[in-house]
Amino acid sequence: MIIACGIEYDGTDYHGFQRQPSSHGPTIQGTLEEAIERISSAFSVVHGAGRTDSGVHASGQVIHFHTESRLTPEVWKRALNAVLPNTVAVRWASEVPERFHARFSAQSRSYRYTVWNDSAPSALRGRYSYHYPRPLHIGLMQAACQYLMGRKDFGAFGHSPDDTNPTRPGPHHCVRTMLEARCTQQDNTALIYCDFTADAFLTGMVRRMVGTLLLVGQQRLSVAEFANIVQRAEKTHPGSAAPSHGLCLVRVDYPEKFALPSSQMSAD
Amino acid sequence: MIIACGIEYDGTDYHGFQRQPSSHGPTIQGTLEEAIERISSAFSVVHGAGRTDSGVHASGQVIHFHTESRLTPEVWKRALNAVLPNTVAVRWASEVPERFHARFSAQSRSYRYTVWNDSAPSALRGRYSYHYPRPLHIGLMQAACQYLMGRKDFGAFGHSPDDTNPTRPGPHHCVRTMLEARCTQQDNTALIYCDFTADAFLTGMVRRMVGTLLLVGQQRLSVAEFANIVQRAEKTHPGSAAPSHGLCLVRVDYPEKFALPSSQMSAD
């Protein structure tokens, strides 16, 4: 039996999604595997749709695991939530067919990067947003986002993870398809959302895109220069990566045939 | 010179607003007084509009303090934010006349209690909301709220703090005026907001009102029984206090003559 789950986590105290030698500290994958083992008394490998970095959050991560246990998905959900720490939650659980794979079946991932753009920090937003005190020109950031759209080499913003995906081999290892890229300000608030949807992302890609877009917003980099950086696809560009605590994996989409619950949740 | 400030805090790790013997752990008042002393090299007492309990948050607390320092309010804001821990933030600072008092000049306080009403917990909402997994009838909770409105004895829901306010002496020590009381569900989400505005609140009052409203929402207490509990004004009633981490002081209102910035902030 294969169980898929929608997972939400506060990544603050985790060393990313992927299991590490335990000396590195807890990971989301390791925490989920321990919880599953406590319930079924057998070890199951957890496969995630996105390997989020250290400190990155998720409201809509999707995972799957194989189990010999005969628990229903609803019982799995309740049992996992009963044993998981309160920084990791199972939003839904569903039985899926043998051919489903959380990572390889995914059609797209959506990330939201949240900037708190005010001269004063926010004590209640600070855990899930990046405090950026200087004024930002959102219109220019939005204009620059147009140059991220479509299928292209995103080598300017990251490197390919150690890719074990047999369906995506070959020389175009930094080529991805961007389906959505936009920067919007929440009405009359200091909140700026940078939303990205792509078939897949390179390691560190969203944080480097945001770091570079923030230079555009400050008018330290023109939209034309941004377009040129994207087009050159070289890693030697001026934008540093924005910090991980502003980033959240908000949604993973699968073909309709799997009939999975939507994992999107308002990140407001 | 008297400086008033709008203060936001994550109350998770604080033993409430009010200064305590240091063995009890850090408080918001103590943390602010230390920060002010670091900047001005002189001790100033901090007066707050609302004495929030241990674990309660604030997005719109208001404080004032006297100082001999000649720093401008804007410099005070920046300097305080530079030395405060990231769980406490100064949203604005303003010079106010001698007759201003954060507590005694306040016309009303507004609190929001947030319930996460879903069978599964939320890892990202958990810090600022109370996970209540059983179904709730919001319409009944809203109907019960009508019986909280107006000027009455709220002795069913709390006791009067050790009141040093010379303007409110006498036998009616649990009489308060409720200006707003409502329970609403955010569209298509598991979030329920219980919003209350009153001239002043008794100690523990909002958490006990919410605890009793949750019994109405579960239909374990009828709206008529709720009305009766309010009317009797006796502490022997079935509702326990809802936990502190769902509560946030969102706004304090003052007469227009003080021209203070609005401290309200979307708590979504």
UniProtKB/TrEMBL annotation, chains A, B:
One GO MF annotation is: RNA binding
EC number in record: 5.4.99.12
Gene name per UniProt: truA
Which residues are recorded as binding substrate?
111
Q: How does this chain assemble? A: Homodimer.
From which organism does this entry originate? Reticulibacter mediterranei
| CDD domains hit by this protein | PseudoU_synth_EcTruA
Q: What does this protein do?
A: Formation of pseudouridine at positions 38, 39 and 40 in the anticodon stem and loop of transfer RNAs.
For whether the record's keyword set contains Isomerase, the answer is yes
Q: Where do the catalytic residues lie?
A: 53 (nucleophile)
As its record notes, the protein acts as a catalyst of: uridine(38/39/40) in tRNA = pseudouridine(38/39/40) in tRNA
- Enumerate the Gene Ontology biological process terms: tRNA pseudouridine synthesis
This protein's name: tRNA pseudouridine synthase A
Domain (Pseudouridine synthase I TruA alpha/beta) ranges? 8-104, 144-255
- InterPro entries attached to this UniProt entry: PsdUridine_synth_cat_dom_sf, PsdUridine_synth_TruA, PsdUridine_synth_TruA_a/b_dom, PsdUridine_synth_TruA_C, TruA/RsuA/RluB/E/F_N
Coiled-coil region list: none
Q: Which family does it belong to?
A: Belongs to the tRNA pseudouridine synthase TruA family.
Q: Which Gene3D superfamilies match?
A: Pseudouridine synthase I, catalytic domain, C-terminal subdomain, Pseudouridine synthase I, catalytic domain, N-terminal subdomain
Pfam families associated with the record = PseudoU_synth_1
Alphabetically sorted, this entry's keywords are:
Isomerase, tRNA processing
Q: What's the domain of life for this entry?
A: Bacteria
